[in-house]
Each structure stands twice: as C-alpha cells, then as structure tokens.
Design brief:
It contains five helices and no strands. The protein has about 200 residues and is mainly alpha-helical.
C-alpha cells in the first residue's frame, strides 16, 4: 500500500513540476528573459523521477502479485485441510460437485481476477482521493458536491453488491450438479469398461 501511495505522490509531483516549469518558461518568454533562463533543474528533477517510476511500478506490482499468490495458496491449503479432515457425514450430505466447484471455480476466480481487481481498487481509490484533494485545493466549494457524489456512490455500491453476490452464488450452485455428474461418470468408467 505504501508503494501505491508513493507512486501516486510522485505522479502528482511530476505533473506539478511540469506545470511550474511551463509557467516559469512562459514568464521568462513574456519578459524577454529567455537568455538567462536555465531549465536544467526541472529537466534533471523530472527526468530523475521518471527514471525511478518504472522501478517503483515494477516493485509494487511484483509485491502485490506475491502477496496475492501467498494468500491464494493459504486459502487453498486451508480448504484442503478442512475437506480432508471432515467427518464422513459431510461427504454423505454434500455432493461431490459442490466440493469440486468450490475448488475449481471459487479458487480459479481468486487466481484469475484478484490481481487486476486489487490493482483497480487501490489505484482507483488513490486517484479519486488525489483528484478530490487537488480540486478542493483549487476550488474549495467543489468539496460539497464531491462529498454528495461519494455518498451516493457508496449507497449505490451497497444496494447492488448483495444481488451481485447472490447471482454469483446461484451460478455456482447451478453448476454443482454438472461437476457431480462428471465425477460420477469418471468414477463409473472403470465399472463400464470391466463389463465390455
């Protein structure tokens, strides 16, 4: 999280420095003082930050991928331990398709979408916060409508998150019998081939 914040701050600093550089160069041009104007400071500072940013971005995404991989591995091991240490009545009550569905689709969903989802959530929030702070500094009255919009977006998210979760749960529950049938068919192939 710290690397994401540092990256956002450096990007804002680069934008601010480019604006200041352009303003001072225009001022020097307006006063016909371009001969004495030296832009080496801005070139070196902005160039240095731009050279550091790719390494910072690589480090933050590598660290995020490592954290998510470790988290997904930990979740898989805990699920596997719970299933292997379950009592026999669990397997009598729970269809094998539900168990396979949990391991394949749920963990597959974690593996495939968690990196981009976390990246979008963290960077999206930081971008919104930095934009709102910048706008509030430039025009303080913009903070009032921004707060109203944030409250409306929060209510919108709360209203639509429950149906999305329920739809995903129903989708996974509907696929469970298919996995059960496939597992039973594969398990029965030995018996079918024995009678040929």
């Amino acid at each position: 999280m710290v690397l994401f914040i540092i990256d956002a701050i450096l990007e804002i600093i680069v934008i601010k420095l480019i604006g200041t550089w352009a303003f001072e160069q225009n001022k020097a041009y307006y006063y016909d003082d371009l001969d004495d104007y030296n832009n080496t400071y801005y070139v070196l500072l902005i160039g240095g930050i731009i050279l550091v940013l790719p390494f910072l971005i690589t480090a933050k995404y590598t660290l995020l991928a490592k954290i998510l991989q470790d988290t997904n591995t930990s979740i898989h091991h805990k699920m596997l331990q719970n299933v292997t240490r379950s009592i026999i009545s669990f397997f009598d009550i729970t269809p094998i398709g539900t168990i396979l569905n949990r391991f394949s689709n749920d963990l597959g969903g974690f593996d495939s979408s968690s990196l981009s989802l976390f990246r979008d959530v963290i960077e999206g929030h930081l971008q919104v916060i930095s934009m709102m702070l910048t706008l509030a500094i430039i025009h303080p009255y913009i903070a009032i409508p921004s707060a109203i919009v944030l409250i409306l977006l929060y209510k919108y998210r709360n209203f639509y998150s429950k149906p999305v979760v329920e739809t995903k749960r129903l989708d996974l529950a509907a696929r469970s019998p298919i996995y059960s049938d496939i597992s039973s068919t594969i398990g029965g192939l030995v018996i079918i081939r024995a009678f040929r």
